[in-house]
Specification:
Blueprint: H1 2-8, E1 12-15, H2 19-31, E2 37-41, E3 56-60, E4 73-76, E5 92-94, H3 96-104, E6 108-112, H4 117-130, E7 135-139, E8 157-161, H5 164-167, E9 176-179, H6 193-205, E10 212-216, H7 220-228, E11 234-239, E12 246-249, E13 252-255, E14 258-262, H8 272-285, H9 292-298, E15 310-315, E16 318-322, H10 329-339, E17 342-348, H11 357-366, E18 370-374, H12 375-387, E19 395-398, H13 402-412, E20 418-421, H14 434-446
Helix pairs in contact: 4-8, 11-12
Amino acid sequence: MKILQIIENEKVLLLGFGREGKSSYHFIRHYFPDKIIAIADKNEAVFKEILKDKNIELYFGENYLDAIAQHTFILKSPGISLKNINLPAEITISSQTDLFIQEFHEQIIGITGTKGKSTTANLIYHILKKVGKNVLIAGNMGIPLFDIIENITYNTIIVCEFSSHQLEYVQKSPHISILLNFFQEHLDFYKDYESYQLSKYNIAKYQTSDDIFICPKKFELIEKLIQKLPLKSKIETYSDSERSDLTIIKDFFIYKGREIGKYTHEIPLKGKHNALNIAAALLACLHYEKDIERLFETIKTFSPLPHRMEFVGNYHQIGFYNDSIATIPEASIQAILALKNVGTLILGGYDRGIDYSDFMKTLAKLNISNLIFTGEAGQRMMKVYQDLELKSTSTFYFCDEYSEIIKLAFEHTPKGKICLLSPAASSFDKFDNFEHRGDVFKKLITSYIV
């Protein structure tokens, strides 16, 4: 295995000791019981479980990144930004993602995008499983890539969800790569928006003429990157407005001129954005199963992921939906348009500096009865709205606590309407992640006493 050869010959520093860092540690220790492993993390407490290991070097505290200069090979965890670090030329920055793709390139379907990557990855996995393929899934959804290596055989299809952080330092791309979209997000992690886009573009940058790149037709930012950094791979496209390899026309999915299925109530994924995710998934799966009608039928048995326009329930004639995954304006607008009957919208959270001007203009036109704002991002949204002097019939509320938000939602959402949590902002002001925020939202709804 190439991974083992690389690790054996390098002085390795694990940078970050969260889920992926611990996975890398256990992988290396399994194959190299006596190898010295250096590990750096800001939080000393994360090392508690490995302190009995005598062959480790630990770096922690505010200056933990200083350990980089003392090592030649860095296995970086996705959550650590190096944008302000001057890296010596002799240092190699790698990661689980980098080593994994180098090892299993020909077997990987890789998916990235600002939004939709988890749904698309899980949908591809579901479809291939249903048609009898040997398939595994791992990556950004919470399964470290090294954790599945022992289960991989020569004919395993590996579906990998990749974040921009995971792709930032890769030197090889998957055999089949999907880039769904770009929107402004994680701007606190990168030097600029272009750096973020380039990280995601690495999913296709290193492909060869034997590989496949799948992307939406006429998505301007992707087209510009392809012009600037031309690809060697074959490009396949999908669209709901342009003629492409797979086109959605009036709810019909058309593959190379042939109708293969209709977007009906039997499809559990709702909204225009999910129709496009389905198109991308079908194009990928077609490289393993040619019966596209059979592939399409399997979508009807897919179970949507939590926190993505998730129906919580009807309470006191109000439909509650949890779309906590929506951390950018574009995702929130897609949810509002898909559900169509939103009476209360909950917005805001951690402020990452996203431009909310166009978002506020769109909300003003939609005239949602109640807009409940929270967090620093919510405060700035309200200010943008006021500065633009927008006119609408919406009533504004601001709350710092989610318990108060739910109280307002029950009191003011019109009967027969929807209360939607679709914040257009990150969750890190009050929550561990978007899942934590969504879980708190659901718990407060189901336990609320009117």
